[in-house]
């Protein structure tokens, strides 16, 4: 059960990324912190904390299945219609991206009270463990994404994007691969900006949790989880619009350059994701109850 909600969100956000917003992908990288039960990856919870969290998780799963997944299915319908009617353009992708942001925001608002309660329950040792895990997380990401010459970062970023696209539209043509490389080159030092922004957010979270007994803690955590843009570094904020537009333009161009077989594969993948959602036991139960 613990992985079910994260799986649903991962599937939906993968589609959102395909729809042209790299910021959605970056936001999902923050969801591993936003979703409170994933703190298992950063600290050891005691039995009482785990039992409490399991009960809260059941409530979140029920909420997500009954109130959010139907919207994901509607979103998939709109995406499918875009492909079928050859309307995968920047305007439509921007609309789908905005809807994706709203979906992420809804999840963030829903789980904030649980995150606040869980973080308030931590002892000093657990806070230290979380800080240490964040530091290790940052070292890992720096080694993978930043501690390389810029030209290698650009090549690796293009390869990651191509790998991400392959399940959706199949093997890219030479023209499409060139377009992906052009996109990656245009982002320049984006890896460093993302890493620095992530480290900044993590430090703010740790500092807030250290003061969990002081008044205003609930609001601090709510702001960090629900208003992340407020806490972006100035450099990351300055690059945001360019990064988002570059991704939307990339996907629009790739679909325009796609072959009939690639578009068919995309439609089949959308259908597969729709089936994954429809096959969820919780959704079937909700439909029967209604």
Structure description:
The chain is an all-alpha fold and 290 residues long. The protein has one domain (4-289). Helix content is 81%, strand content 0%. It is built from 12 helices and no strands. It has helices at 4-18, 22-34, 47-84, 90-121, 124-145, 150-169, 174-187, 190-210, 217-226, 234-256, 260-278, 281-289. It is globular, with a radius of gyration of 20 Å. The two termini are 23 Å apart.
In short:
81% of the residues lie in helices and 0% in strands. By secondary structure, the protein is mainly alpha-helical.
Indicate the percent of residues in helices.
over 70%
**Straight-line distance between termini:** 23 Å
Question: Oligomeric status of the shown chains?
Answer: single chain
Q: Unreliable segments (pLDDT under 50, ≥5 consecutive)?
A: 1-37
- Please outline the major beta sheet: none
Shape: globular
Gyration radius (Cα, Å) is: 20 Å
Output the helix-strand order: HHHHHHHHHHHH
Tell me the number of helical segments per DSSP (H or I, 4 or more residues long).
Answer: 12
Provide the structure class: mainly alpha
Average predicted local confidence, pLDDT = 82
Percent in strands: under 5%
The total number of structural domains is: 1
Q: Please count the beta strands (DSSP E, at least 2 residues each).
A: 0
């Amino acid at each position: 059960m613990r992985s079910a909600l994260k799986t649903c969100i991962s599937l939906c956000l993968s589609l959102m990324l395909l729809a042209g917003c790299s910021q959605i992908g970056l936001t999902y990288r923050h969801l591993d912190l936003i979703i409170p039960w994933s703190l298992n990856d950063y600290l050891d919870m005691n039995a009482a904390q785990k039992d409490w969290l399991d009960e809260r998780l059941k409530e979140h799963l029920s909420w997500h299945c009954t109130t959010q997944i139907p919207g994901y299915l509607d979103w998939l319908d709109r995406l499918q219609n875009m492909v079928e009617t050859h309307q995968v353009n920047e305007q439509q992708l921007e609309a789908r991206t905005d809807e994706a942001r709203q979906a992420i925001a809804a999840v963030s608002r829903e789980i904030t009270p649980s995150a606040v309660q869980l973080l308030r329950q931590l002892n000093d040792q657990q806070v230290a463990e979380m800080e240490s895990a964040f530091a290790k997380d940052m070292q890992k990401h720096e080694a993978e994404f930043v501690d390389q010459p810029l030209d290698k970062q650009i090549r690796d970023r293009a390869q990651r994007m191509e790998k991400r696209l392959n399940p959706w539209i199949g093997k890219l043509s030479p023209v499409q691969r060139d377009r992906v490389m052009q996109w990656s080159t245009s982002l320049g030092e984006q890896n460093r900006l993302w890493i620095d922004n992530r480290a900044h957010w993590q430090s703010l979270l740790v500092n807030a949790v250290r003061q969990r007994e002081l008044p205003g803690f609930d609001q601090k955590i709510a702001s960090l989880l629900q208003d992340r843009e407020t806490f972006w570094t100035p450099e990351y904020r300055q690059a945001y619009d360019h990064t988002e537009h570059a991704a939307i333009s990339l996907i629009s161009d790739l679909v325009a350059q796609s072959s009939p077989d690639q578009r068919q594969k995309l439609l089949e993948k959308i259908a597969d994701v729709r089936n994954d959602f429809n096959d969820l036991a919780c959704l079937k139960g909700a439909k029967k109850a209604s």
